């Protein structure tokens, strides 16, 4: 299985569980950080790590998800059927609890992430003011921006950038695909974020584009234990 497949399941399960955006973003950051930092990460089932990261992020973001629900939703999403026995459930539960401690150690128990969502919301308010004379469906634009953020979270480079730079790049991409760049001030990026660089924005947009060009389908192999 690939990380892209595991992250696809993570995002689908987060959607089914109706988590906050901050929760699935943090889960993706934990996931990429784990596989970057852990020298023995190759032996771990990526679906198990994804489920564990979502459980950890739900605690960090105070999203109050039940481990039982995470296990059931992950299993049903991957296998297209419900868990058959209590033994299967408790085996998966034990695997996630054990994995939780290991992932936490790899993360050095650092669970706080700089959230692009708060910057997206703030920046969009400014952009909306600049585009007040345009007939625009802002609900659609904000939905698109969150979709781009989810796409970017599939790329391991998402752990290397500040949340505000990610948000700025995503808005730039949304304005570009919507042909709205000419309707905002020429120096709008500097007005919203003084420390941005054109190179960073270009790199983030390139990563989002790469993800969209290389998306894979979900594979079915959540075993809940090391392989």
UniProtKB/TrEMBL annotation:
Q: Which SUPFAM superfamilies match?
A: Cyclin-like (SSF47954)
InterPro entries per record: Cyclin-like_sf, Cyclin-Q_first_cyclin_box, Cyclin-Q_second_cyclin_box, Cyclin/Ssn8, Cyclin_N
**A Pfam family per the record:** Cyclin_N
| Keywords linked to the UniProt accession | Cyclin
**Domain Cyclin N-terminal, chain residue ranges per copy:** 7-109
Q: Mind listing the GO molecular function terms for this protein?
A: cyclin-dependent protein serine/threonine kinase regulator activity
Does the record bear Glycoprotein in its keywords?
no
- One GO process term, biological-process aspect: regulation of transcription by RNA polymerase II
Q: What is this protein called?
A: Cyclin-related protein FAM58A-like protein
Q: Which organism is it from?
A: Leptotrombidium deliense
